[in-house]
Amino acid sequence: MRKDILASVRRLVIKIGSGVISTDQGLDAARIAAICEDVDTLLRRGYEIILVSSGAVAAGKKELGIDGRPPSIPLRQAAAAIGQSRLMRAYKEQLRPRGHLVAQVLLTRDDLNNRRRYLNARNTLMTLLEHRVIPIINENDTVVVEELRFGDNDNLSAMTANLVEANLLVILSDVDGLYDRDPGRHPDARLLHEVERITPEIEAMAGESASKLGTGGMVTKLKAAQRASLCGAATVILNGKKTGQLLRLFAGEPVGTLFRPAPGKMAARKHWIAFTKKPQGSLRLDEGAARALTAQGKSLLPTGIIGMEGRFERGDAVRICDRQGRELARGIVNYAHDELARIMGRKTFDIEAVLGYKYGDEIVHRDDLVLDRDRTRAMEESDDHS
């Protein structure tokens, strides 16, 4: 199965963690050189590669006299501002002599929340790949605020895999892969070479990261693998501190942990709604509306809405919940919070009379809606999680 999956790969996203290419003293030039050598080999074999690289904060924090993780967002932003150019220079100095151009792409979650900017980012990345340029993506730490953060670059790399429709996500970490127990405390812990699906038992095997440089741990890597699987991509966690791991992977050797893609691929727009666009509020439905959404495939009309939380604008994502607050779906709302406050519970023919205008009958159209059971289908291989 591993060989079959890897044989179909043409485009891959490689996420490189801070713990792989950084030390307390800054960037590890030798480790970056070793990774770039493998990337060069894969590019010459015809693969298309997108890098998602951490390391900007680690590269810049020493100049600010910071030891360990910056304790505040302003210090993190300042360190990133200093370090991002150094990070890009490190990649350029290794890849340019090998005949490869690199391009810096800095993103915030807001860039991918907005559908137009999402498509613009996609078009940029596709154009770079078409011209054989290597995009190097990082979160734009210099301007991002907490509510617009991806949270970690594992999450960003999974979103990128969906953005560019990659076949494979490779996460280079400072561990060999997923073990059945913590290898630091259990010398007999067994490395899992292949995971068919991420179950609660698999999730329980993930421990918290002990890294001072990074923000993610094994838990975030499992979540990234889940997200990537829904857009049809496999995920491999490799030890990026060991030389030649990428080439050993594509040679068919049983390195790292491979997570199989879900059997059913979610359409790119549905995946964007379900996992990329951050919900700005929630709607609560009566039993009839909940049943129409989950059992009959209907759009959401105003008559079945009995409450709402948060503030949202037209085009924002919202959680759609039952009367008890259990999430049933996520979708793109056609009316803003203030508008919906005036028309919820009413019939569709009342909308124009109340507001003086009408965008449509649907508060959330079924084409802009993803049921909760569809969000978890590939992970649990079941359609009965509603």
From TrEMBL:
Pathway of action: Amino-acid biosynthesis; L-proline biosynthesis; L-glutamate 5-semialdehyde from L-glutamate: step 1/2
Catalytic activity field: L-glutamate + ATP = L-glutamyl 5-phosphate + ADP
GO BP, sorted A to Z: L-proline biosynthetic process
Residue numbers binding substrate: S54, D141, N153
EC supergroup of this enzyme: transferase
Gene Ontology MF term list: ATP binding; glutamate 5-kinase activity; RNA binding
Domain of life of the native organism: Bacteria
InterPro entries: AceGlu_kinase-like_sf, Asp/Glu/Uridylate_kinase, G5K_ProB, Glu/AcGlu_kinase, Glu_5kinase, Glu_5kinase/COase_Synthase, Glutamate_5-kinase_CS, PUA
Key words of the record: Amino-acid biosynthesis, ATP-binding, Cytoplasm, Kinase, Nucleotide-binding, Proline biosynthesis, Transferase
Enzyme Commission no: 2.7.2.11
Localization, UniProt: Cytoplasm
GO CC entries: cytosol
PUA domain mapped to chain residues: 281-364
Positions annotated to bind ATP: K15, S173, D174, T215, G216, G217, M218, V219, T220, K221
Cross-referenced Pfam families: AA_kinase, PUA
UniProt keyword Nucleotide-binding, yes or no: yes
Task performed by this protein: Catalyzes the transfer of a phosphate group to glutamate to form L-glutamate 5-phosphate.
Family to which the UniProt record says this protein belongs: Belongs to the glutamate 5-kinase family.
Protein's name in the database: Glutamate 5-kinase
Species lineage: Bacteria, Pseudomonadati, Thermodesulfobacteriota, Desulfuromonadia, Desulfuromonadales
